[in-house]
């Protein structure tokens, strides 16, 4: 029996993955429900400490940030996902009050998106207590400003180790949507953590409910790494350094890399082998309905959500308006300069993103999974009714 078959917390099922034996697949921590003494064995506390110490940036500072447009573009992707899938649920049952799990919610960057989507109740969960406190404060501020707002719960816990359901005010709650934005990859430290995360996501999700999120694309990271001369690659705003030896087989879990992004992230993350993620997710009744790298996501939705792209300033005006400078260096705009030079109407302005920012945006992918219906087998055990017979294509 290989290492993957080790039994993890809350996992009494037979492992179904035929993985290669690998040191990195060994159990690393016992996975303890909120027991501080045992947390030292995991990266989770490094991640929590990092996010707990991230300073809140003022509006002025954000506007001058070298990742101003990247940040807005990421927000556009999240807004589109939220809008599209709340709409899909409402298409079937208009007027139904929507309940949501926002897992790895951070400081509540999506609060106003949930407000615009007119949801009824959101449970926000994150490992970083300081972020959860800020999320709560932002929620209260928004409520004061808006009058009416969805009701909310805030949970500070390691979602890769602890059972969220035990912490809900109503443990029988059923979610219509679960969202995990830029956070799922932290659970790919070990099989046990990925399982707990998926169990938390799926456990209270209604049949036909959606789970969507955004993660770095492991294939893209490996492709770029292979093109680079050493173990790290990046540009002046980001850097990725692999912390395992890629000459060996890639570990399925615990494939650690350091991700530095100007003023936002600077901590270890883990590659998510997407096919493996889908295989695991299937065990929790979740099936792929959509997957696209951000550049394809943009192609798919920029027509429908063009106004939003402009409203939240996803693109920089080129050439820069009088008395303003472009956010990046000259060489960051060669793509648009060539285009502009060939234009006949030189009064027209173009919208673009600096190459440095686009190189970060295109590392990510968005995915949407749907919860299957289930039935009981002859032993009274819940079994999922999968709609697809074969593995879905993972490449768009
Ligand atoms: C890049 S931030 C994204 C925050 C938010 N979803 C957003 O889009 O703005 C990643 C978040 O994942 C959280 N996180 C990382 N590991 C976690 C874990 N084991 N359990 C819960 N949250 C975790 C971090 O604390 C951080 O807030």
Automatic annotation (TrEMBL):
Residues 1-44 are annotated as: Disordered. Keywords: Methyltransferase, mRNA capping, mRNA processing, Nucleus, RNA-binding, S-adenosyl-L-methionine, Transferase. It catalyses: a 5'-end (5'-triphosphoguanosine)-ribonucleoside in mRNA + S-adenosyl-L-methionine = a 5'-end (N(7)-methyl 5'-triphosphoguanosine)-ribonucleoside in mRNA + S-adenosyl-L-homocysteine. The keyword Magnesium does not apply. S-adenosyl-L-methionine binds at residues 78, 104, 126, 158, 181, 186. Its main location: nucleus. It comes from the Eukaryota. One of its GO terms (molecular function) is RNA binding. Pfam families: mRNA_G-N7_MeTrfase. Residues 7-26 have a biased composition (Basic and acidic residues). InterPro entries: mRNA_G-N7_MeTrfase_dom, mRNA_G-N7_MeTrfase_euk, RG7MT1, SAM-dependent_MTases_sf. It is found in: Nucleus. The record marks 107, 113, 138, 185, 269, 364 as: mRNA cap binding. Transmembrane segments: none annotated. Gene3D superfamilies: Vaccinia Virus protein VP39. This is mRNA cap guanine-N(7) methyltransferase. The lineage of its organism: Eukaryota, Metazoa, Ecdysozoa, Arthropoda, Hexapoda.
């Amino acid at each position: 029996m290989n290492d993957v078959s080790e039994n993890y917390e809350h996992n009494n099922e037979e492992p179904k993955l035929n993985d290669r034996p690998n040191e990195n697949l060994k159990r690393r921590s016992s996975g303890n429900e909120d027991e501080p003494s045992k947390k030292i064995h995991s990266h989770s506390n490094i991640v929590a400490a990092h996010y707990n110490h991230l300073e809140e940036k003022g509006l002025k500072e954000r506007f001058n940030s070298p990742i101003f447009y990247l940040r807005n573009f990421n927000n556009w992707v999240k807004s589109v996902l939220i809008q599209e899938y709340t709409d899909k649920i409402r298409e079937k049952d208009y007027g139904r009050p929507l309940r949501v799990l926002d897992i790895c919610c951070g400081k509540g960057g999506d609060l106003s998106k949930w407000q615009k989507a007119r949801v009824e109740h959101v449970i926000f969960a994150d490992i970083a207590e300081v972020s959860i406190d800020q999320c709560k404060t932002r929620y209260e501020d928004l409520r004061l400003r808006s009058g009416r707002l969805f009701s909310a719960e805030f949970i500070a816990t390691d979602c890769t180790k602890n059972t969220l359901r035990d912490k809900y005010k109503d443990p029988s709650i059923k979610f219509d949507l679960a969202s995990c934005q830029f956070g799922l990859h932290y659970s790919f430290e070990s099989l046990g953590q990925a399982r707990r995360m998926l169990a938390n996501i799926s456990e209270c999700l209604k049949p036909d409910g959606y789970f969507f999120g955004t993660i770095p694309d492991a294939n893209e990271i490996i492709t770029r790494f292979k093109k680079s001369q050493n173990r790290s690659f990046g540009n002046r705003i980001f850097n990725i350094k692999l912390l395992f030896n890629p000459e060996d087989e890639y570990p399925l879990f615990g494939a650690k890399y350091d991700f530095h992004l100007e003023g936002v992230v600077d901590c270890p993350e883990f590659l998510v082998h997407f096919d493996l993620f889908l295989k695991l997710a299937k065990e929790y009744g979740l099936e792929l309905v959509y997957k696209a790298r951000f550049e394809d996501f943009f192609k798919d939705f920029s027509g429908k959500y063009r106004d939003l792209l402009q409203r939240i300033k996803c693109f920089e005006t080129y050439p820069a308006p009088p008395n303003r400078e472009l956010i990046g260096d000259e060489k960051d705009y060669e793509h648009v300069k060539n285009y502009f030079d060939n234009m006949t109407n030189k009064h027209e302005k173009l919208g673009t993103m600096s190459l440095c920012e686009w190189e970060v945006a295109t590392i990510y992918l968005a995915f949407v999974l749907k919860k299957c219906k289930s039935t009981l087998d002859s032993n009274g055990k819940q079994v999922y009714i999968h709609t697809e017979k074969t593995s879905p294509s993972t490449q768009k």
